[in-house]
């Protein structure tokens, strides 16, 4: 956020609360008053990192914040963001969402040139590329090095007196621009604008770079745009239901996914329920389309993080065991259609089915509002190998047996795309990355 007439620390702080669902491992803020950049980051939730008088030492008109979900590099305070460096371009603080597909090659090259890395994240690669650029100002430096980075990403960078944002050429990860009185704000999701009272202006375009300073806002093409490929998993799981991506409301998209899933299914049941929270919208769509009662079958402990984005399998399994509890009066003796957004590793759904059976459910039929996740993601989701994806090893019937469901059905790829496209948005020509479902990767090593 950049607002010369304001102290923006509280805006950034509350904005991070709105984005907490995107990462629970660490949180951080960098802020500048025009003379220096101060950074505070720590492991934990936003509420744990910024306690008591922590924010009193952070004041300024230019700031960036980050909540981390590790997709590259381990979960440690060393890898927490923002990443702040001092180099020939001055003091720079960086936050990053996504993954660099060619991170290993870039890191190897930089290390051979004598670079010493302080973290194991691919976010640090941009810092070293900038430090080694042939230019002495950050804008020209970015123009020189941005094309070296392949993958799906959004970056925010701040100097003492400027805020810079850019997206990759395909636009895998979302980034929106908002306006507040006397300044501008950028966010991965529009729900953060609502939280701090900002007005949505537009989405940052694929390949676009925006620079904000006291003279105003300027936009330039940093990378030549390629086929638009917004990650469709943002709609399915990552984004909050009250956010809009390319003008499409996430809740409405998920409800359409549920309706499409109902059309493809042929199940007799008594009630429909959803796995809290990201599946509730799709479950309401299924119930509406099948003309079945929508019931609360599971209660979520609000103080446990999202299991899919916890950093290792053991922690995911423990998280599921304490995260959800059945509503016995609702599920006892019932044939249940349980809707979930996806099956990635199979951890969550297996434990949930056992929980419902222990609570007296007569039958548990699983409907998944996305296709089977069969292929790794290299653009910002922590599924980097086929070995951890249950659908890459087992067919649907084998998965059904493995998780212990009475029946199992996934939404088709065609049905998923139809559902997303049914919801009106700002740009109906937008394409989506479906690589985790069909193995067709928009970015290749040759790009």
Question: What this model shows, in words?
Answer:
One of its GO terms (molecular function) is 4 iron, 4 sulfur cluster binding. It comes from Natranaerobius trueperi. There is one protein chain. The two termini are 32 Å apart. This protein has 16 helices and 22 strands. Helix 4 crosses helix 5, helix 8 packs across helix 9 and helix 8 crosses helix 15. A hairpin with a 2-residue loop joins strand 14 and strand 15. It is globular and about 70 Å long. It folds into two domains: 218 residues, Glutamine Phosphoribosylpyrophosphate, subunit 1, domain 1 (4-Layer Sandwich), CATH 3.60.20.10; 195 residues, Rossmann fold (3-Layer(aba) Sandwich). The strands form seven sheets. Strands 4-5-6-7-11-12 form a six-stranded antiparallel β-sheet, with helices on one face. Strands 16-19-20-21 form a four-stranded parallel β-sheet, with helices on both faces. It is an alpha+beta fold and 447 residues long. The mean pLDDT is 93.
List keywords for this structure.
447 residues, four-stranded parallel β-sheet, 22 strands, six-stranded antiparallel β-sheet, 16 helices, Glutamine Phosphoribosylpyrophosphate, subunit 1, domain 1, 30% helix, 2 domains, Rossmann fold, 25% strand, globular, alpha+beta
The rounded distance between the terminal residues' Cα atoms is: 32 Å
The tally of strands reads: 22
Strand percentage: 15-25%
Helical segment tally? 16
CATH class of the largest domain: Alpha Beta
CATH homologous superfamily label of the largest domain:
Aminohydrolase, N-terminal nucleophile (Ntn) domain
Strands side by side in the biggest sheet: 4-5-6-7-11-12
Q: Examine the coordinates and then state which fold CATH places here, giving the name of the CATH topology of the largest domain.
A: Glutamine Phosphoribosylpyrophosphate, subunit 1, domain 1
Mean pLDDT: 93
Helix content: 25-40%
* Number of domain units: 2
